[in-house]
Design goal:
Blueprint: E1 4-8, E2 29-30, E3 33-34, H1 35-45, E4 50-55, H2 60-65, H3 70-76, H4 86-94, E5 96-101, H5 108-114, H6 116-119, E6 124-127, E7 131-134, H7 141-152, E8 155-161, E9 171-179, E10 182-190, E11 201-209, H8 213-218, H9 230-239, E12 243-247, E13 251-254, H10 258-271
Parallel strand pairs: 1-4, 1-6, 4-5, 8-12
Antiparallel strand pairs: 2-3, 6-11, 7-13, 8-11, 9-10, 9-11, 10-12
Helix pairs in contact: 5-9
This protein binds 1-O-phosphono-alpha-D-glucopyranose (G1P).
């Protein structure tokens, strides 16, 4: 059973300055819903109810978002606008939220290690809110991955094919094809140049990790960019055949880039917001 999802959310979001100067990048809205809320909804749809958020300085708005706003809610009570709060109220009722701060920004692996005290000794999901994943009419991506975890009982990474000239933005995997959408990973490289990439299968921000990852992370030296990389830690598990890569069903928008953010906004306006 996967009961907890970790959300690394301490990063600065410099690509969206000045919007992110005093507001967490995870609070950037896709039309009217912040990115972090999409990610929490996705975790909940995978049967997860304990949300563990790794925050940092200047991220107070995240905690306030998953809380009641008495004054505002009183104001709009019994008006037509109440419908806009239905989703977030349900999340607050049905999930628990815990937070810890990452004091120094030493990479995604370090952020995940910072979350250890919230996770303990059990397998858990990880969702990067700036990768927005939508699978309309089907299981959301984390739900697809939880099903696979129950089958394989090892770490799972979500991957998608990217153009060769984009490999330097991602962790890239290679491995033995088990099914047309499943690979047993043998090699993982963080942000390789196209000529060094072992394939064009790029990791996107959804993981299921087994808890031995924490001990591995403690012994993982800084890698690409001088940061502690989750990709390097996963490579240790992959050596024992314990990492599965999954070509997920659905769409992923890179909301860490202006282009992906605009695409996601247009998509959600058409398919989700208008239906409200
Ligand atoms: C991180 C990971 C990378 C992964 C990516 C997915 O990179 O380090 O392996 O492919 O997330 O979004 P970041 O985008 O945080 O630099």
């Amino acid at each position: 059973m996967i009961k907890k999802c970790l959300f690394p959310a301490a990063g600065y979001g410099t690509r969206f300055l000045p919007a992110t100067k005093s507001m967490p990048k995870e609070m950037l809205p896709i039309v009217n819903k912040p990115l972090i809320e999409f990610a929490v909804e996705e975790a909940q749809a995978a049967g997860i109810s304990q949300m563990a958020i790794v925050t940092g300085r200047g991220k107070r708005a995240l905690e306030d978002h998953f809380d009641i706003s008495y004054e505002l809610e009183h104001q709009i009570q019994n008006t037509e606008k109440e419908k806009y709060l239905v989703d977030i109220r349900r999340l607050i009722d049905e999930c628990t939220f815990i937070y810890t701060r990452q004091v120094e920004m030493k990479g995604l692996g370090h952020a995940i290690l910072t979350g250890q005290s919230m996770i303990g000794d059990e397998p858990f999901a990880v969702a990067l809110a700036d990768d927005l994943c939508i699978n309309q009419g089907g299981d959301p991506v984390l739900a697809q991955m939880v099903k696979l975890y129950n089958q394989f009982r090892c770490s799972i990474v979500a991957v998608q094919e990217v153009p060769r000239d984009q490999t330097h933005k991602y962790g890239v995997i290679a491995g033995e094809e088990l099914r047309d959408d499943l690979f047993r990973v043998s090699t993982m490289v963080e942000k390789p140049k196209p000529e060094d990439a072992p394939s064009n299968l790029a990791i996107i921000g959804r993981y299921i990790l087994t808890p031995d990852i924490f001990d591995i992370l403690k012994n993982t030296p800084p890698g690409k960019g001088g940061e502690i990389q989750i990709t390097d830690a996963l490579q240790q598990q992959a050596k024992d055949g314990c990492v599965i890569a999954y070509k997920f069903k659905g769409q992923r928008f890179d909301c860490g880039s202006a282009e992906g953010y605009v695409e996601a906004t247009n998509y959600c306006f058409e398919h989700i917001y208008k239906a409200l």
